[in-house]
Write a structure and sequence with these properties.
- Helix 8 links the parallel strand 7 and strand 8.
- 30% of the residues lie in helices and 22% in strands.
- The longest helix is centred in the first third of the chain and has 17 residues.
- It has 333 residues and is α/β, with parallel strands linked by helices.
- The protein contains 12 helices and 14 strands.
- The protein is globular and about 60 Å long.
- It has 2 domains: 102 residues, 2-Layer Sandwich (Enolase-like, domain 1), CATH 3.30.390; 199 residues, Enolase-like C-terminal domain (TIM Barrel), CATH 3.20.20.
Amino acid sequence: MAPQPQRLTVTRRAWPLGQPFPMPDGERTTADVILAEVFDGNARGRGECVPLRRFGESADSVVAALEAMKGAVFSGLSRDTLQDAMPPGAARSALDCAFWDIDAKRTYCSVAELAGLGAQRPVATSFTIACDTPDAMAAQAAAHRAWPLLTVKLGGTGDIERVRAVRSAAPVSRLIVDANESWTEAQLRAFMPVLADLRVELIEQPLPADADDALAGLEHLIPLCADESCRALADLDRLGGKYEAITIKLDKVGGLTAALALAAEAKRRGFRVMIGGVIGTSLGIAPALLVAEQADLADLDGPLHLAIDRNAGLRFEGGLIQPADPNLWGGRG
C-alpha cells in the first residue's frame, strides 16, 4: 500500500500562568503556545513551540512560518530535509518534534530508541525564580528552598541584593544566575567576586550577545554560560575563551535534531551543556528530556508556572522530572 500524504495542522493557544511572571520585556500572564501536528492517515505526531521575542518571533510569525510549510509537508518533507528547509527557531522546532513523534509511531519504537539513546531516566531540573524585588524573590526562594538547584533571573541594577535575598531564603540550594544580557562589563567585574562569595555556580549570558567579546579579557571567577550568544553549531567557533558552558533551548536552535547535534559537538569541544526551556506545556519540554542525556544541567520547569498543563503532563517530584508518558509525546505507535 502506498504511503498516505502527510498533512500539517497548526493551532495557537494562550495558556494562562498560575501567577504573573516578570520578564525583561514585560510581565507575562499567559504563554503563547503553537502546536504543530503531522498526520498521515495512520499515525499522528505532535510538536510544540513558544515564540522567542528576543529573536524577533511572535505567535503570528511562527504560525505563518508553519502554515507556509503545509505544501512541503504534503509533498513528503521529512525530519532530515526540514533542517535545510527552515531556519533555526520556534517554528522549525515544533515541526521537527512532530516529525520525531510520528516517525517513532511509524516504526513502533520510542523517540529515545529512534535517536539511539538508552532508556530514559528521571532528569534533575532547577526551579526558576522570577526577577522581582528582593523581598518577592526571597519569598519565591523560601517556597522552593527544598529544591537542590535554583535559577535566579536578574535584570541589572539591584541584582546583588536580589541574589543575597535568594541565598538567605534558600541557604542550601545550588544557585545559577541568568542576567539575560542585562549587565555591562563593569557590572560583571564588580558582581563576580560577590556572587562567588554567595556560592553562585554559573552565570548565564551576563553581557549582550553582540558585546561578549569583552568576556575573553576577564578572569572568570565563576563559569560563564552562553545563551543568546549560542544558537547554532557555527556559533561554537567564537565562544571559546569567553564561555565555559552553553544553554541549548529547542525553540532557539530549531528542534530536537539540532539540539542533539549541538550538545554532542559542544561536549566534544569541552563546553558544559545546560538544557533549558521556556514557559510552556509539558509537550514542549518532553523532547528536551532526551537532550538531558548529554547535558550537565537542566532548567526545564516551565510547565510548573502554568495554571493548568496538558493531559498526561510531565511529573515533577522533588526536583526530578520523570520520563514522559508515551501518551504525551515520543511513545511507541
